[in-house]
């Protein structure tokens, strides 16, 4: 039974499923896991219409500093509030909550290059999220939470820009605007927290795709979900400020609140939404296998974050993205 709790767009690194046998020290390779079942619904897709130059110009230093972490609870305790933030629904889940014990990642490596902050507008408000570069055929695909791209069955994000390796205001690999956004049909049509996953296809910067500048992480859609994971994100709600990459690690467990997502102990706050969960993460190289993304928390349990188990629906989203 779904608890009747407040829901705020989660930014707790979503507890992702552990990919069996994944080794983080190996070089980044393509996606693993079974091919999507034939005949399944494809991704819901949106083409960005804004001029890239206008998007880049929009995100001044002041606007970036003022952007709210996505999923911040605006107010009220009833279902279906009209003034709720993107992703707010009637399930009692909140996409993000308070926290304070996720340490800053100081280990460098691939994860410090491939993880980045996202800045976007949704329904006339500016927000921030997290995304990760994954190995793809077009070398231009990042994965994130569905609610960092689309407000459930509502509006798509606009002015979407990815800043890989963001560190205390530094942008060592530049900025990349989105040209295509894709989410699962379950998220786009029913705001299904079990399928809160999406991908963005980025325009090139300086004549080169993002993967050439940052490298990429392996991603798996095997649906396995046992063992430990390490999550990363840019939490921006107090006590965090979104300026540094943070991390959590530990075992995952099933959600008993009505979704098929997995949970793990982590108190990262809003802003970390969409951050990667790694199985087989190697701290020396900063590599692992992405098996989920930060999705939601329950209002009654700020210390546990949840993430979707990546399967056939998410694989279709990724396949359409990497061929876009």
From TrEMBL:
User: Which EC number(s) does the record attach to this protein?
Assistant: 3.4.21.-
SUPFAM superfamilies under this entry?
Trypsin-like serine proteases
Region feature Disordered, mapped onto this chain:
24-47, 85-108, 243-262
- State the source organism's domain of life: Bacteria
Residues annotated as domain Peptidase S1: 117-305
| Keyword entries, A-Z | Hydrolase, Signal
Write out the coiled-coil annotation as residue ranges. Answer: none
Question: Looking at the Swiss-Prot or TrEMBL record, what is one Pfam family this protein matches?
Answer: Trypsin
Compositional bias (Low complexity) at which positions? 24-38
What is the annotated signal peptide range for this record?
Answer: 1-27
Stored InterPro entries: Glutamyl_endopeptidase, Peptidase_S1_PA, Peptidase_S1_PA_chymotrypsin, Trypsin_dom, TRYPSIN_HIS
GO molecular function list:
hydrolase activity
What the entry lists under Gene3D superfamilies is as follows: Trypsin-like serine proteases
* Protein's recorded name: Trypsin-like serine protease
